[in-house]
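Before the break, one more example. Copy the sequence into your notebook; we will annotate it together after we see the structure.
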Amino acid sequence: MEFFEVIRRRRAVRAFERKAIPTETLEVVLETANAAPSACNLQAYEIYAITDERQRAALALAARQQTFLAEAPVVLVFCTHAARSVERYAQRGETLYTIQDASIACTFAMLAATALGLATVWVGSFDAEEVARIAGAPPGVEPVAILPLGYAAEEPPEPPRRPLEDLVHRTR
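Here is what the structure looks like once it is written out:
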């Protein structure tokens, strides 16, 4: 799929078919996330790939009853790993760069999934401590985004967007 078509076709999907994702397809999504840029290429993030049905159901509860998480065959949990950034960048690395790194990796995974015919939705509303526990993340590794992956069981309409004149502030 051509890049700009991927951007146009990406939607927030909250209904998934009960259909497994081929291992090779998931690996491409994960490799694409791994290719994401990060501050000083430190990759101050971790990705937890959750395929177990019970864990996905627990994540749905920890994500404020967002039950569609349990429907997706794979749920990726993107976490900060501040210790990878703090030595080089101190507090800014700990409180900002690691969040940016994880967010960019999640975005790359989302776009790769779209290009491969998968559906996703960025989930940011959740109990971080509970999600970390379910994912098996050690102390200091904190969830910032959950990305369910699967085949769409719905086709959401194109979301409205602000006009560029309202969004972009150009300097003269």
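The chain has a mean pLDDT of 96. The chain has seven helices and four strands. Try to locate both features in your own notes.
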